User: What shape does this take?
Amino acid sequence: MADKMQWANALSTRPSLEAAVADVVQQAVSSLTAPADLGLVFISSAFTSEYSRLLPLLAEKLSVPVLIGCSAAGVVGRTEPGKTQEIEAEPAISLTLAYLPGVNIQAFHVVAEELPDLDSSPNAWIDLVGVPPSPVPQFILLSSAFSSGTNDLLQGLDFAYPGSVVVGGQASGGFVSDRIALFCHNRLYREGTVGLALSGDIVLETIVAQGCRPIGQPLRVTKAERNIILELDEQVPLVILRDLIGSLSEQERLLAQNSLFVGLAMNEFKPSLQQGDFLIRNLLGVDPSAGAIAIGDRVRPGQRLQFHLRDAQASAEDLELLLQEYLDNNRSESSPLAALMFSCVGRGAGLYGQPNFDSQLFKRYFHDIPIGGFFGSGEIGPVSERTFLHGYTSVFAICRQLNS
Assistant: This one.
C-alpha cells in the first residue's frame, strides 16, 4: 500500500500579521505527522500594506520546499476542528499544507509576454511550464486579475497537456495592481500567473458551480459575428428574448432585469442538455434596431445556447445538484483527502445573505476533509473537458490519492 498522503488547513483571524502567521503554522503543522512538501497560502486584502512581510514571516516558522499563494478579498479555511469558515473583508490568513508521497511538485511563474502564440506547438508550452505531459499533471493556477493572457494560458495548457485538470482563481484585493500579490519561489509578484503542476500519485476532480438555472428552451445560433448573436433559430434574438421574459413569473421577470445570462452548450452532440452542460457568460447588451444580442464570449453558427437566471436559490440548488452528482459518480473511488475552494467575490454573504454558505454545503457532503481557498475576481475550472475563466462561480478541486 502506498504511503498515505496528508493534508491540513488552518485559518487565523488574528489582526496582527505575526500572530496570524504563527497561529496558522502551528495549527497546520501539528495536524500532520510527516513534513509538508507543499504549502498554499491565501492572505486577506486587509493586510495589503504588509504583503511583502508574509513570506519572510512564514520562512521563520515553516520549512516547506514549495509554497505558492495570493492575496484575496476573503479567505476560506478551518478555524477549529470540524469548522470551516469564509472570512470576507476582514484580516485573515488561510494556510494549507500537504505531505504528498509519490507526487512530483513543480512551481512556476509566467507573464503574458512569455506566452507562446496560440498556433505554436505543444512543446512551446511544455518548455514554458517546465513539466512533461506524462504522467499527466494536475495544475493549480493563481493569476493576477490585471494580467492579460490568462485565457491564452488556459488554452495553451489544454492543448499541450490533454487530460490535465486545471483549476484556480484570480487574486483579488484592490482596483490597482500594487494591491494584488502573488507568491512563488519565496518571491512576491504583482502580475502574471503563479502555478503548481502536480504529477504522479494524485488526482484533482472538480465541481464547477456557476450558480445559474436555465429558463426557456435550448436555441440554435443561426447567424453570428464574433460575440454578437444576429439570429436564433432563424429569428430575431431580441424578439425571442422578449417573448421568453414575458412568459416568466413576476419574480423571475424582476430577476431577469439584472441577473440574466447566456449558457453556451459545450457538447455539440448531447441530445438533452442539463445544468452543468453550459458555459455561463454575461449578456453584455442588445441592439434594439437590429434585434441582436452581445455576450461575453465568441459564438458561432450552429452552437446551442439557453438563457439562464442567477440568484441565491439558483446558486444553492446548482451547487447541491453538482455535489450529489459527484458523489453518485465516485462511490467506488478512494476517499477524498482535501479540497480547495475558489469562489467569486460576488458570491459569499453578499449573495446568500449569510456567511459560509458554499463551504458549509460542501461539508455536508464531504464531512471531515480540510478545505482551504479564497474569494477572487475570476475562477478557473473545466466545463466539458475545456478550461475557462468564470465569474460568479465556486470551483472546488477535490484531491484524492490514486494508489491508496
Notes: Residues 6-210+315-401 form one domain. DSSP finds nine helices and 25 strands in the chain. The two ends are 6 Å apart (CA to CA). The chain has a mean pLDDT of 93.
